[in-house]
Specification:
Blueprint: H1 2-32, E1 41-44, H2 53-63, H3 73-81, E2 86-94, E3 98-105, E4 108-112, E5 116-119, E6 124-125, E7 135-137, H4 143-158, E8 164-169, E9 175-179, E10 184-188, H5 192-203, H6 207-210, E11 216-218, E12 226-228
Parallel strand pairs: 1-3, 4-7, 7-8, 10-11
Antiparallel strand pairs: 2-3, 4-5, 5-6, 8-9, 9-10, 11-12
Helix pairs in contact: 4-5
Length: 246
């Protein structure tokens, strides 16, 4: 009898406690949605070069839902990240009624063919950009590798006053560089950096003294390279020395 009363009292206490929690949850739900907690300001904590105020305001109007407590930060971040030029976004609440948004923009590094851009991290993105940039051409997923190689090519060729304006890698991993002077370098698939270093080292004693315009250099030879001189109308470049490798 006494044991049963104790059990009943325990159940009653648990029910009362549950009811109190439900009342508190309902009250919190109601209070959190009061107009007093509406978001009244969206502050951008970044200096932006490409993302415009109109674009940000458009996202705020179309995508932001809820108040200070109920706004979905993940959904808000995703909405801003869909803007052109936006690489990363950070979003946080600032009491009592402000949302702070930080943008990391893409920094353009090259063009990806004719359809997109490559940023300084080697990531492909789509945006409109009019300034001159080098062009990268390659299979899907190769942009980062090309960006890394491009930096090496630019440093190496800069020592002889040349600048790469296009870098291409084929699906079979054969590399080719077109220079600002109009010269094209075929590097092949193997020992790419060593071949370019040999060309740079020999440039002053060979092409630099040739006195004729050269439009193509084939560096796929073990101990030298071949050149094509347009005025001689060669169909193919003749090897300078030894035989060509891969």
């Amino acid at each position: 009898m006494w044991d049963r009363a104790t059990l009943l009292n325990g159940i009653a206490d648990a029910l009362f406690g549950l009811a109190a929690l439900l009342v508190l949850a309902a009250a919190a739900f109601y209070v959190a949605r009061l107009p007093a907690f509406s978001l009244r300001e969206v502050r951008v904590g970044s200096t932006l070069q490409h993302v415009t105020r109109d674009q940000i305001e458009d996202v705020v109007r179309r995508e932001l839902r809820g108040n200070f407590f109920t706004i979905d930060l993940a959904a808000t971040r995703a909405a801003f990240e869909r803007l052109p030029w936006v690489r990363n976004v950070s979003v946080r609440r600032q009491w009592p009624a402000r949302l702070e948004v930080g943008f990391e923009e893409h920094v353009p590094f090259a063009r990806w063919g004719t359809a997109a851009l490559v940023n300084t991290h080697g990531e492909v993105f789509e945006a409109a950009y009019d300034a001159e940039l080098p062009v990268f051409i390659g299979p899907d997923g190769a942009a980062r590798e090309i960006a890394i190689q491009y930096r090496y090519f630019r440093r190496s060729l800069g020592t002889i006053g040349e600048t790469p304006v296009q870098v291409q890698v084929t699906p079979r991993r054969a590399w080719q560089i077109r220079l600002g002077s109009g010269l094209t370098l075929a590097l092949g698939r193997e020992n790419v950096e060593a071949r370019l270093a040999r060309f740079v080292a020999m440039h002053g004693r060979t092409i630099g003294r040739l006195g004729r315009k050269v439009d193509y250099v084939d560096l796929r030879y073990a101990n030298g390279f071949a050149v094509r001189i347009p005025e001689l109308r060669h169909e193919r470049p003749e090897p300078a020395r030894a035989r060509r490798t891969g």
